[in-house]
Amino acid sequence: MTTAQGTQSRASTRRDKTPDSHDFPTRSYDLVKEFTIALVVVIVLTGGLAAIFSSPDEKSITMSTWAKEAPNDLIATATSELAGTSTSATYGAPYNTASDGQKIGPLSLQKWGGVRIPVDSAGLVLGPLAGVSGDSTLTSALATWKSATADQQTKWATDYSDALSKAPDGDPAKVATGEYGPVPDISTGLLTLAKTGGLEGILTSSGNFYGGDQTQSLLLLSDGAYLEDQARARNLGGDQWGMMNETGNYPGQPWMWLYTFWYQIPPFSTSDNADAQVWGLMMLLTLLLMFVPFIPGLRSIPRFIPIHRLVWRNYYRRAARR
Amino acid sequence: MTTRTDSPAPGDTDEAGSWTARLRSRIVGLVPAGQALPDRQPVYLASWIYVFGVLTLSALAVVILSGGILAIGGAAWWHVSSLGLFVNSLHLWSVELFFGFMVIHLWGKFWMAAWRGGRAMTWITGMVLFLASIGTAFTGYLSQANFASQWISAEAKDGINSIGVGAFFNVLNPGQMLLWHVVLLPFGVGALTVIHVILVRRHGVVPPIDAADPSTDKEA
How far is residue A146's CA from residue A148's CA, in Å, rounded to a whole number? Predict the structure, then answer.
């Protein structure tokens, strides 16, 4: 059969000498039957796996759970937000300009992305508390905070944060005496609000009835140690192959094994720019695999490692007999 | 059924300038005559490895169907309904099978050097499909609204932000992630799948490495 396509394929064969597939002898092959059987097999397999193993659905952590299970961590996190020392406060783009963020060599891709999701870390604490009424201690503390200079605010919060880190178990009740201004009352106010269950709602809605963006509440939660502690307890840490794992005994995302692998070994496991470097490496590897047809040497690997001899063993056997 | 052939009026010879005629001829010419749904295949097509392409397509169909049922119930349905949980389980396991089949299909094609004979774009669209599928599954994990999505998003933000993409693709915003998961990425995966399959049918299944050219009967 000669077709336009056949002509086109033959033109390309002048380079790689691959014959036109349409010129080969054929045999009966029922594609629709093959697809139908495959679909039935997949449906049966999927149904069986779903019926036997179900799927994981561990409830999300609420701010209330955090406040009740790890109150000292929530207090420390609130204080670090006020001091400007939390992870999100010092993050850089896309939340703020506090740092240049990660780099791949000289390339500051993170910084170049720009601050498109501005987040004021102190606002994660002060914003929700601004709407609290009926708590005169908190009202007074917020007024004191607001009337102080930025330097004074930072000094209070930093000193209190340091004192908390030195206190046994980070317990605010055991903090050394010091000049912390309104910070202890403000952080305690956030703890109280979180216990009521209303904190994430305020952070998420930001005055909009239809809150659908959890950026602020997730940043606050991940600034604390509680979320990571819970994840590590489930073997989901970054150095525990966590990016491809799933809660419970489920396969998770095994197709991300190579991406996850780099985080387990040096230099990535010890690098401050690990995320950017791993992304850069994966982009390079992906491009290599994608454009393998055009890369001399790489495209010849299948020829040198003759796994194709297994695939086409019948064809080669017949060809050898001729 | 009766078939009618429209005959042009005398003097109407403008078919060459017709956009409709050009589009039709473009579509018809995408695949050689008889190759869109052939009932015969080259003799060398005889291995279990060939089944994994169609298994991938079948799993994708189950993924889309189970995802569609989940969409009918809404984002929170599967958290509160045992039927919803079962449908979510169908969705999860069909995704796992989909990736399993696709990876076997991909490596099978690699070892067959299936990009030969002008098939580079078939290989590239397959690779892009693999990447788009990873993105689709990833946004699904971010849209679960449970502990896993909290932790995955908290971790993923560092990776995405480190290359500047987080400024536009906010993994901490489940509303945005859900829309990517159910609209944009599935549309991309669907469109790429159609293109990939058309390319496969257009070029035919790649012949064995070093196969003799039947048209000239010479060793290639």
Answer: 6
ipTM of the complex: 0.92
Query: What is the Cα gyration radius of chain A?
Result: 30
Q: What are the residue boundaries of the structural domains of chain B, listed by start?
A: 48-112, 119-207
Do residues B100 and B114 touch, judged by C-beta distance below 8 A? no
Contacts of B147 in chain A (CB under 8 A): 58-61, 230, 247
Q: Is residue A116 part of a domain?
A: yes
Name the residue among B41, B89, B207 with its Cβ closest to that of A55.
Answer: B89
- Contact A238/A265 with Cβ under 8 angstroms? no
Best of B49, B80, B89 to disrupt the A interface by mutation (most A CBs within 10 Å)?
Answer: B89
**Domain total in chain A:** 3
- Residue A28, φ and ψ in degrees, nearest 5: -65, 135
Question: For each of chain A's 322 residues, which pLDDT tens digit applies?
Answer: 334 444 444 444 445 789 999 999 999 999 999 999 999 999 999 999 999 999 999 999 999 999 999 999 999 999 999 999 999 999 999 999 999 999 999 999 999 999 999 999 999 999 999 999 999 999 999 999 999 999 999 999 999 999 999 999 999 999 999 999 999 999 999 999 999 999 999 998 767 788 778 999 999 999 999 999 999 999 999 888 888 888 988 998 999 999 999 999 999 999 999 999 999 999 999 999 999 999 999 999 999 999 999 999 999 998 888 7
Tell which A residues from 228 to 267 touch B, by Cβ distance under 8 Å.
230-231, 236, 238, 242-243, 246-247, 250-251, 253-256
Does residue A205 share a domain with residue A126?
yes
Do residue A202 and residue A245 come from a single domain?
Answer: no
Nearest chain B residue to A50 by CA distance is B89
For residue A257, what are its two tokens? Answer: 């094994």
Same domain, yes or no: A146 and A249: no
**Nearest neighbour of A35 by CB, restricted to B58, B110, B124:** B58
